[in-house]
Amino acid sequence: MDQNEIRTGVVGLGYFGSFHARQHAANPRARLVAVVDADHGRATAVAAEHGAQPLFDHRDLIGKVDAVSITVPTSLHHAVAGDLLDAGIHVLIEKPIAESPEAARDLIRRAAAAGVVLQVGHIERFSPVFGELARATQAPRVIELTRIGPWKGRAVDVDVVLDLMIHDIDLALALISSPVSSVEAIGAAVRAPTNDFAHALLRFENGAAAHLHASRVADRQERTIRVVDMDRVVLADLAARTVSWTAHGADDRHEIAVPPSDNLALEIGSFLDAVARRQPPVVDGEAGLRALDVAERIMRAIKRPSEAAQYSMNGVSS
After folding, report:
1. In the Cβ-directed half-sphere of 227, how many Cα atoms lie within 13 Å?
2. What gap in Å lies between CA 192 and CA 153, rounded to an integer?
3. How far is CA 6 from CA 3, 44, 115, 193, 194, in A?
4. What local confidence, expressed as pLDDT, does residue 305 receive?
5. Cα(268)–Cα(260) distance, rounded to whole angstroms?
6. Domains in the chain with CATH codes
7. What is the 3 state secondary structure string of the chain?
């Protein structure tokens, strides 16, 4: 493969898919060959914008591209990604990796059999703010991750655990390198048929814990991660793009501002780099599976009132 040009495509041209197409077209390593959507008008419009070929069936990409972004609904992830992986095409698939852990395992197996890259779109891993936070911590003891915002009326068919919280599940698992030993959670539907807010407590085998708060019906916007480490408390504000820390027992606070970045461009650039170098991606299928597995455990815990009642909500607001 010519490392200076990777033939790419995008499957699914909804809200996120249009951004993926724009980034593929702008990346100097890629040549956006085709875009795919069942809506002929949408596919034709996005293709014309980027000088690509409009297609209406993902299987028509076979033989035309080397790598793709898949941004179709989660219920279609397994079918679409499976066809393309089997054809030897490298895949970047939006989170969550699949509808079930079993489907995720199958995609991982098929990617390995074809010898191709399978990357999962946990975009916050590519945030320079998260990178600074990770460098500022050594052995997290307690993590509090908050991702809340006002009602926007989108993704109402997807549980908030899979819509929003799964980002922070992935970040918690990346910061705490230990298996999850127990899960407690509560949540409720407010405006959608699925949970609109959820609170979870994850305990890890190494003794660490993570508190996760997600809401799409909150009265404010907040995306923060607070880490109690061995010798300091570190706070990352992903929206304000700041990282601050205070040593235990001290009053002075240190803060750095992180320059603006396009995290989707960084994510797609990292994917294309993994494809060109034939190296494992930063967020591989196994990482996507781990996040999905914990998300499933949280949603099951929400359905068990007796266990959910054990979770203390003191001082917590959706």
Report:
1. 27
2. 8
3. 7, 22, 17, 41, 39
4. 58
5. 17
6. 6-116 (3.40.50.720), 125-259+295-308 (3.30.360.10)
7. CCCCCEEEEEECCCHHHHHHHHHHHHCCCEEEEEEECCCHHHHHHHHHHHCCEEECCHHHHCCCCCEEEECCCHHHHHHHHHHHHHCCCEEEEECCCCCCHHHHHHHHHHHHHHCCCEEEECHHHHCHHHHHHHHHCCCCCEEEEEEECCCCCCCCCCCHHHHHHHHHHHHHHHHCCCCEEEEEEEEECCCCCCCCEEEEEEEECCCCEEEEEEECCCCCCEEEEEEECCCEEEEEECCCCEEEEEECCCCCCEEEECCCCCHHHHHHHHHHHHHHHCCCCCCEHHHHHHHHHHHHHHHHHHCCHHHHCCCCCCCCCC
Which phi and psi angles does 55 have, rounded to 5°? -130, 160
Confirm if 197 and 318 have CB atoms less than 8 A apart.
Answer: yes
Pairing label, strands 242-247, 254-257:
antiparallel
Place of tokens 């989170």: 95
Nearest-angstrom CA–CA distance, 11 and 38: 9
CA distance 284 to 122: 10
**pTM greater than 0.85 (yes/no):** yes
Distance CA 238, CA 245 (A): 15
Tokens of 182: 């127990």
Q: Which residues of the chain have pLDDT under 50?
A: 1, 306-318
Backbone angles phi, psi at 265, to 5 degrees: -60, -40
d(CA 234, CA 255) in angstroms, rounded, equals: 10
Measured distance CA(222)–CA(150) in Å, rounded = 10
Q: Which residues contact 112 (CB under 8 A, 6 or more apart)?
A: none
Amino acid at 210: A
**How far, in Å, CA of 98 to CA of 73, rounded?**
9
